[in-house]
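Supplementary Methods, section 5.1.

A reviewer requested that the exact input to the structure prediction be made available. We therefore reproduce it here, unchanged from the version used in the analyses.
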Amino acid sequence: MSFGQGGPQWGPGDSRQTPDWAALAEASESRTRRRKWLTIGGGALATAVVAAAVAVAVVSANSDNTSASNKPASELPSTADIPGASTNPGPSFEKTTPPPPPDPKEFISSVKKDKAPLGPDTLFPGKSLTSGDRVYKKGATDSTKKCASVTQDKLGTILTKNDCTELFRASYVKDNIAVTVGVAVFDTEAQAKKVNEQAKKGLVVSLPGKGVPSFCRTAVCRGTYNAYGRYAYFTTSGFTSDKDVTEKERKVYTVGDDLARFAFGQINRRGEAQASAAATAPE
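The structure derived from this sequence is encoded token-by-token as follows.
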């Protein structure tokens, strides 16, 4: 075989055959199509994997929520642990402070507010009076709008000057000591105070009757005076034998003091009763 320029030459006796270019081109195109399908298929597979992962995540989240909602209350998070939970306990309201109860003295300091029934039976109830271990039997009672008519002159002048509207009396006795307590009524507290400041001399006239003999008509007796609200109250105490009372006769002083406290208590109770009724009355 001889070689010339231009490349090998194939003679009839050579064992090689000429390549089938058409078949080779078709095979190459087939391989190219196959690679494209593999690429597209791989992309679809990746998409499927991502979708599966998302589905798993969703299922997992739903599973956690369901489990948490089935936990007992003791295992649930506290309000403070919940994100965004408010620490504000909610709306608050100021406590309503009830108004103070009415002052009982207001009701017994002026005729405009002191409207409760007033008489010997309301001021001096019952048939006897007990003070500690001492029991006094009640005798006669009375009332008058002419205050000066049942008092000694000096006291009567003071009562009239300050416009006394009525005076109530009651007598009590224990053993040989008797006492008359008198309660004078005025329209205002100021009038009663003036009487208390001026009544240094003069007594309420003693009141006998209903088991109480005459007393303190000719003898020296002990007197007291005071005022509370629109009321002035007095006591005249002495021996039923008309013996003079001296500073040594402490039992007479005790009787007078007991009845003075009783008069004050009755006046004060009038105020308390009216204040209580006003506090519970519907508005």
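Confidence is low (pLDDT under 50) at residues 1-16, 37-74, 82-86. These observations are discussed further in the main text.
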